[in-house]
Amino acid sequence: MMMDERMIAFIQSMDKGNSLFLTELEQEALQEGVPIIRPDVQSLLRFLLALTKPRNILEVGTAVGFSAILIAENTAADCRITTIEKYEKRIPQARKNFAASGYEDRITFLEGDAADILPGLDEGCDLIFMDAAKGQYPHFLLQVKRLLAEGGLLISDNVFQEGEILESRFAVERRNRTIHSRMREYLFSLTHDEELETVILPVGDGVTLSVKREH
């Protein structure tokens, strides 16, 4: 059964929520039209952080820093977080939020295109959170797999494209067809890659969880 809005609202009503700082940051972001991870994805992310206890995390797509701060709040003090953002308008906002959160010393903020930055990073990430431009997911995958440690978890957000992923390419607006094709390509790559074990979850706007197999 596909969950309707009443079921989603009921589940969200049981959620313990975030810190006051994150709650206020979320409200501010929504008022300004800044995309941040949805409440049910926040809950899933907190659960996965508690389960996996990562020590080295990479986030591709910072926006205003909401999810990086959520990760910092829900991981151990020795956990290091690296996050990448190329949209110049968001960079000063994220830096301001990191400083105000008190987690600035645990977050390494890299400015620029992930396509240029990822090849220069060292491998060994326990967890990677992919929440960048959806059309770029397939282009990042090779480097992301290299960086992900064996047994590590790759989380990819917004893979359903507001439901458009279910439609035929020709039923999607022309301007969205490239992203539609690339996201289908990405999902196929994840689910058919022998190095990964992937599940697609109907949470938020679609989330994939991919574990890198141990050799």
Short summary of the structure?
With 215 residues, this protein is of the alpha/beta class. It is built from eight helices and seven strands. A hairpin with a 5-residue loop joins strand 6 (196-201) and strand 7.
Would you identify the regions where 5 or more consecutive residues have pLDDT less than 50? Answer: none
Number of helices: 8
Give the overall shape, derived from the CA principal axes. globular
Mean pLDDT: 91
Biggest beta sheet attributes: 7 strands, mixed
Helix content: 25-40%
| Rg | 17 Å
Derived from helix and strand composition plus strand pairing, the structural class reads alpha/beta
Can you walk through the features of this model?
It is a single chain. The chain has 215 residues and is of the alpha/beta class. 40% of the residues lie in helices and 20% in strands. The chain contains 8 helices and 7 strands; from the N terminus they run H-H-H-E-H-E-H-E-H-E-H-E-H-E-E. The chain has a 7-stranded mixed beta sheet, with helices on both faces. Helix 7 links the parallel strand 4 and strand 5. It starts with a helix and ends with a strand. The mean pLDDT is 91.
